[in-house]
Amino acid sequence: MEIKDAYNNWSSTYDDDKNLTRDLDEKVTRKILNPLKVKSTLEIGCGTGKNTEMLAKISGKVLAIDFSERMIERAKEKIKSGNVEFKTADITNKWDVPDDSFELITCNLVLEHIENLDFIFAEASRSLVKGGNLFVSELHPFRQYVGKKANFEREGEKNEIHSLVHNISDFLNSAARNGFTLVKLDEWHNDNNEIKLPRLITFLFNKK
Ligand SMILES: C[S@@+](CC[C@H](N)C(=O)[O-])C[C@H]1O[C@@H](n2cnc3c(N)ncnc32)[C@H](O)[C@@H]1O
Fold first, then answer.
1. Ligand 1 pocket check for 67: Cβ under 6 Å
2. Is the CB of 135 inside a 6 Å radius of any atom of ligand 1?
3. Are 186 and 28 in contact (CB under 8 A)?
4. pLDDT per residue over 106-138, tens digit each?
5. Kindly report the CA angle at 8 between 62 and 157, in degrees rounded to 5?
6. Which atom of ligand 1 is closest in space to residue 90's alpha carbon?
7. How far apart are the C-alpha atoms of 163 and 41, rounded to whole Å?
8. Is the pTM of this model over 0.90?
9. pLDDT (tens digit, 9 = 90+) per residue, 22-49?
10. CA pair distance 34, 58, nearest whole angstrom
11. Which of 43, 93, 110, 200 to mutate to test the pocket of ligand 1 (most atoms within 8 A of CB)?
12. Pick from 50, 69, 109, 110: CA 20 to 30 A from residue 200's CA?
């Protein structure tokens, strides 16, 4: 199944399925970003808007984009804040935003589906104001190394969504090549994680 079709399919149950990665992502994103106050945020791969409401509270305005029409539909049903605009777009194509136009860009659980990290970091760098922040949260590569990827169930069958493995150094080097400095890197476990593999990795970068 194509990635977009998979998310269109998953959209009807994405918010309600048991999903430890989604829940931990929401928790750590709030912890890191809640203290910020920014004029404008671009959320790439917003999905059903799990993090959008929080972004609307810390931002003067939010542009939230995703290539799955159905994920966006779910987000629009839930998010009623007047300062959020949703747009359907594929982030592997040039982003339809002006240069130097956002103070914060967020990207949660999306880059495992993107082959060319450099393109994303380059577009983020172009779209951010100088001194702006880029926050990235991803399934930890250690989990990818043992074969974990985004997946959902339909009629008792597990559907795995096409994913690419990015090493920690891939994120750091791509960010550095595109004018970012690393402000904060964290690795996150579930509270009762038996196998001791971190579930998530988060990066906060700053555009020089
Ligand atoms: C696991 S969901 C995460 C959604 C949301 N950020 C969250 O944390 O709940 C991944 C999202 O990335 C979107 N996505 C994947 N590849 C994309 C692309 N090339 N362009 C735009 N959105 C994309 C999918 O449609 C999906 O909504």
1. yes
2. no
3. yes
4. 999 999 999 999 999 999 999 999 999 999 999
5. 135
6. 20
7. 26
8. yes
9. 999 999 999 999 999 999 999 999 999 9
10. 7
11. 110
12. 69
